[in-house]
Amino acid sequence: MRLEAAYGLALRDDPRTADAIERVGPLGPGFEHDHRASGLWWWERRHTNPDGE
Question: Angle CA(42)–CA(6)–CA(29) in degrees, nearest 5?
């Protein structure tokens, strides 16, 4: 449920996304190919490195 909520916030570039991602915590086996987990990774990457370097 937390993964789905964080993913929804990330899609909307909501300012609460970073906190939601922290609450998701580590994802166990089975989430390697989950589009929601990938979406959170991309959101974090864009926000920690906005220049794309």
Answer: 75
